[in-house]
Structure formats: C-alpha cells, structure tokens
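Fold this sequence, please.
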Amino acid sequence: MTETVVKRLPAESGTSGWEAISRRSFPVRTLDGGVSADWLIVGAGFAGLSAARRLAQLRPGDKIVVLEAGEIAKGTSGRNSGYMIDVPHNLSSGEYSVAGETATRTEIAENRFAIAFAADAAAEYGMSVRTFDPAGKINAAATERGMKLNANYGRSLEGIGEEHRFLDAAEMQEITGSSYYLGGLYTPGTVMIQPADYIRGFAAGLASKADIFEHSPVLKLERRGGMWKAESRNGSVTAPKAILGINGHIEDFGHFRGRLMHIFTYASMTAPFTSRSTGKDRWALLPADPMGATVRKITSDGSSRVVIRTRFTYDWTVQVGEKRLAGIAAEQRTSLDARFPDLKDVQFEHVWAGRLCLSRNHVPAFGEVDKGLYSACCENGLGTVKSTLAGVMAADLATGTHSHMLDEFSDQPVPARLPPEPLAWLGVNTVIRLQELRAGREG
C-alpha cells in the first residue's frame, strides 16, 4: 500500500487581472460521494486539462475525472503572462541565446507540438482571437546591453534557421507609443493567450468528455489493491491510473522533495483606458534581459489595459504576503510610468503574484513516479507550453502510446537536488536580486 496525506494548499496572493476580467460559461461542480473512473487527473491547469484532452483522444469512452483544489483559472494557470513561446526561453539563464543545435531543435519541436495541440483545442472549443492570438512576440531592449543581448539572440536564431526580424526605435515607438525602447527582436511563432479565458474555455470544451470537479482538493492519495484512491472533502475517486498535473505541489505528494524551486513573480494590470499614447491595440513585449519587465497591451470593446510583470522571489513556504505584493506594485508603477508617462493617472486595478516551478538543471519532474502514478510537473518558467506538453506526454506514457517525442522527453535526468534551507533561499534570492539589478532599465 502507498499512501500520501496532502497538506492544505496556500492561499493565492492578490486577484489575477486575467481572472477578474474573464467570465466563465459553465457552473462549478464539486465532488460529492464516491466515484469510480478509468483515469484520475489531479489539477485542472495546463497540464491536467491537456492530459484529459489527450486521454479522451486516445481512449474515447473511458471515464476521466479531474480534481481541482480551487476554482478553474483562479490558481496558477490563470495568473501567468500568457505567452506560449516556441523558441528557447530559459528564465534561469542570463540571456536567451541558444547553444547546442540538436538540443535546441528538439526543444523548439516540442514547444511547437504543444502550441499546435493548444491551437487545435482553441479551434475545437471556439476560442476567439482575444483568447488565443498567434501574434508573435517582441524582445524589447531599453539599453545598449539589451540591444547586445538581442543581437546575440538573433545570431543564435539565424544559426539554426529560425525566422526573426530586428526592429529599430522608431518601429518600437510606432507599435507601443513609447520612446523608451531602443529596439526589439520579433519572432513570429509565439501565441498570446488570455490565460484565464483559455483555461476556462478549455475546461468548458472538455465537459462532455471528462468530469471536472472544483473546490475538491486531494487530501489523501493512496494505492490499494491495484487502484489509486483520492480522498477529498466530500467524496473520493478511485481509478487504476492517475496523472498529477500540479506543478511544484508534486512535492506535497511525496515526490521530488528538495529538488524544486518555488519562484514567485508579480504582475499588475491597469484599469481600462482610452485615447492614450500606447500605440497599437495589442502588443506583447518580453524583456531583452530575462530579469526585466514583461509588458502587454490588450484592447477590448474600445478600451485598453496594460499588464506589467516584474520581479522574482524564491519562497520555500510557497506563499507571499500582502505587504510584499504592495511594495512590488509600487516598483511596477515607477517602471510603467517611465515607459508610458501618459498612463500616470491610470491606476492599477489588479495586483497579484503567481508561482513558477524551476529545477536547478532545467528539467521537468516527469514520468511514472509510482505504479500507475504519473507526474507532469515543473514547467521551468514556461508553464503555458511546457505544462501542455507534459500533460500530453504523461497521457501518452500512461496509455503506452509510443513516439519519438515521448522517448526524447522521457530521456532526461531527474531534477537536481537543492541545498538545504535556508541556504537555498539565501543563494537563490541573492542570484535573482543581482540579476535584477544588472537588468537596470530593462526592468
């Protein structure tokens, strides 16, 4: 018998602007009573929902049950920046330049496979361009150092035959309305999503093929008599196989402990505005320096909003307080005002924190971790794509659906062990802060 008692999940910090402006089209269902299924999936985010969709494709007619501890799109999956990036994007590196042609091509192929899977779901479930927009992204440079980082990135992309285009200061001002940026590097393969709408649209589309229960945290998971049983507050689910799509919370289930870093990043969304000098209706900027500011503009029904994301902190408690959230929001206000002086009187309407999961060696927490129990966790800072991929690969692995991509995805080392706390906390946060200071005006 294998048994795990799961601790209570921490509360989220702040209300995600994406969730606040999203509207769900289906009622909340909560697990009530005992349920038997062919498949149990824990987590209704990018990984869990992608695994459920893939299982429905591979095993039509099987009963699939998804348990979500909170409410769909109110957790981590609805709190990210909404970039589905195809080209390499390693947040733990000092720059995005790629090295190792074979590994890079493999990663790009995996990312594009995940994006294609998401695009098929978006089309089938009727998502609009406001939710799923294949617009590409721009790595924006505000300093000479940023320009050099973009130049290095461009050379590495050219070396592997990847399409890209450099933008000068005038083109950046035409796009954004801001004179802050010296230049940019455009790559066309990124899809911009409204993450809360995407996750809710995905869940609604799966409703006929999977039973999704919200506010149904798994409090105990045990294997007995060849079956996995997940106990929640008011019911339980029993299935021969289970997939965990819970990112860093895989540690709470007894796996990969001491190997995963819980990194928080912070975002603010303005109130809606009109008639301001912010360029085109929609654009998406990543920083030339990975530790800089990510900035997006969205427009709907004649009014616009800007979202800014900056700062990273490592917290092994997996929770941050309101005081820190307010302090970082003040920093973001200064950063936004420097870019868009015309927005100084437009208040932040929503401020929030979101969790990332990283490993020291930049690998996922993936595979069969116990008999019939599969992990699709640790997205290494690109959850929209990496978690989608991991969910699909976990479903393939669990069903014995072999492919070259699954072989390559499975053939990775386990996440490296972290130093003991508080040494890990001190070391990781020191490195993060030094990199943020080096980013300067890119932040």
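The mean pLDDT is 92. The two ends are 50 Å apart (CA to CA).
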